[in-house]
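pinned: reference chain
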Amino acid sequence: MNFELLKSHKEIQKAARDFAKGEFKKELAIELNKKHEFPKKIWKKAADLGFIGIHFPEEYSGQGLGALENILVAEAFCSGDSSIGSALILAAFASECILRFGSDELKKQLLPKVAEGEMLSAGAFTEPDHGSDITSMNTTAVHDGDDWIVNGSKTFITNGGLAGFYIVLCQTDPDADPTYRGMSMLLVEADRKGVSTMDVGEKMGIHMIPTAEIIFKDVRVPSSNLIGKEGRGFYQVLEFFDESRILIAAQGLGIAQGAFDRALAYVKQREQFGKKIAEFQVTQHKLADMATKIELARLITYKAAWNFDQGRIDPKLTSMAKMFAGRTAVEVADEAIQLLGGYGYMAEYEVERFYRDAKITEIYEGTREIQKNTIASAVIGRLK
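pinned: its structure tokens
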């Protein structure tokens, strides 16, 4: 058993950190956050350097690397800045559905555009009436000649309104029992007639990432836009979650590390009662707890990514990683604010934004309660 990263991993880590240090300026982050503006220029630069779609094969403009390398970049970006980093690591969100299940034609058509920073992608799974429950879908797709006709709506869609295409989970067999056996995954291009979007409104955090409701009204897409096998959409989404939840765990891990770094720098220079704040035992204990949580989150997140790269699907492990790293992000960012006191509440010192950005990691890609259901199911097994 070897816990040491390879030289190539450390080089990727360093490159990502250097990029974040050079591009993620505090003043720019605060400005973009106020404007709710996606960091397009930085996204383009990141794509040019190969950070976007790093886990895509080289034939699709990727670097042929795995989930571990992808999450190393995610961690470095989100520790550099919680808002810019989160926007960049989710630029290719759900494109993995095409990579893992799509036809060669769809891969050649779309994956290079995502990796090269020409197009954002989005997964349209959540519905207004169902939330975390994806075992039932109101969005339908029916055959009409050589096409599918899609009707329905999705909500809380990351990159909604800016994405070039949506991976849509639809009910294609209304008579299936249980219903999830009649679901399929379709690719719907954003510019197709009948597709419209509406911003969901003011959010607590991740202000640089557009979040929208997507409405499909008699949207016609060709049969070739089917991703994977008809009737297997639900199972494909679950398999995708086993990869995407590791990415969200890395997002939480990076945010926690970034908040910790800022708090540590502050207490080492700030004086109260004639002493550095870092000299007080209560501060030291807080830092010890924060560092321990981050290290534990890192270990389980790295293990989950490594395990995925070995070709193993382990929903229990990926759910543990996401649940623990997300909780760590919230708790560490909360303590960071406490260590900075009144300054922690101010935008200039960043940790309040890290705190607001952290919370979403406990919500999207399945709430922490959903992760606990998955973990408990694996632990208990079948009951006789």
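why pinned: The longest helix spans residues 233-269. The CA atoms of residues 330 and 359 lie 6 Å apart.
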